[in-house]
Amino acid sequence: MSNYLDESKKNDWWKPGLLLFGKLSSWIVAPVLIGTILGKYLDKKFNTEPIMLMSVVGFCFLISIYGLIKETMSEYKKIEKEVTDKKIQDKDKS
Q1: Is 59 among the domain residues?
Q2: Of 30, 37, 31, 29, nearest to 53 (Cα)?
Q3: Residue 87: inside a domain
Q4: pTM surpassing 0.85?
Q5: Which residues, including other chains, have CB under 8 Å from residue 16's CB and lie 6 or more apart?
Q6: What does the pLDDT look like over 59-78, one tens digit per residue?
Q7: CA distance 92 to 55
Q8: Does residue 4 form part of some domain?
Q9: Closest C-alpha to 75, from 13, 16, 34
Q10: Tens digit of pLDDT for each residue in 4-15?
Q11: What is the DSSP letter of 12?
Q12: Residue 52 structural domain
């Protein structure tokens, strides 16, 4: 049974990459989409055709950049910790 679980983990090498892709993509799409909808609504409400749309989308773009950097740094720290732990394990084995 243990051997089967080990083989299953080897076959799932693509899952972390796909999850990271999904997280980063959502940081790009969600704020800009919400900003576009909100900006168009505010433009219609205040009759300021492109001004509110551009302002809100620009602000949401900054939110996207912040989220991307935060998520990327978090993943980088996880990878760095895994590499460090693996080096320590390899050193202990020898």
Answers
A1: yes
A2: 37
A3: yes
A4: no
A5: none
A6: 999 999 999 999 999 999 99
A7: 56
A8: no
A9: 16
A10: 555 666 788 889
A11: T
A12: 14-93
